[in-house]
Amino acid sequence: MAAARLELELQKRDRVRVAELIEEVGIAAAFQANDRGHQLLVEPVEFGIVVDADPQILGAALGNLLQNAFKFTRPHSKVSLSTHATAERVVIEVADECGGLVGGDGEALFRAHEQRGADRTGLGLGLSISRRGVEATGGELRARDFPGRGCIFTVDLPRLPALAV
């Protein structure tokens, strides 16, 4: 659905409380983590952090990142979802224990139909859709490789002033 909304330019941007979005994404991801035998660590998010985004598209992007982390991380290991903010930026990170990237090329992962590893389920579109969704909000999606350990996928978004409580 996120891909279709992006393609048809049907975004419904709004002020999104990041704490609420992370809570929703974390609940859905907990079931996937459990099914694959992984531990999911979701760090608490300060309530006043707000971004301008389509919550369904941004939620789908984060969900895709977590799904990939569960798919490629080592059995019985952990995946974490954390959020950090400055006055101008909001950074959401998904860290896994996949062992690192084959060849170390993080940019190649974002090409449509790119698939690596033994598990070839899916179409290889999740990361390219995630990047398009994050970029549609004015943000960036990057991957960092930690050879022998894992990867961290970073969503970097502009921060809006906090909403009145």
Please give a structural write-up.
The N and C termini lie far apart (32 Å). The longest helix has 19 residues, at 18-36. The protein has a single domain (2-158), classed as 2-Layer Sandwich (Heat Shock Protein 90). Helix content is 33%, strand content 26%. The chain is α+β, with helices and mostly antiparallel strands and 165 residues long.
CATH architecture: 2-Layer Sandwich
**Number of extended strands:** 7
The CATH topology assignment is Heat Shock Protein 90
Specify Rg, calculated over alpha carbons: 15 Å
Secondary structure category: alpha+beta
Strand content: 25-35%
End-to-end Cα distance, whole Å, is 32 Å
Write a concise synopsis of the structure shown.
The chain is 33% helix and 26% strand. It is of the alpha+beta class.
Which key features would you list for this structure?
single chain, 165 residues, alpha+beta, Heat Shock Protein 90, two-stranded antiparallel sheet, 4 helices
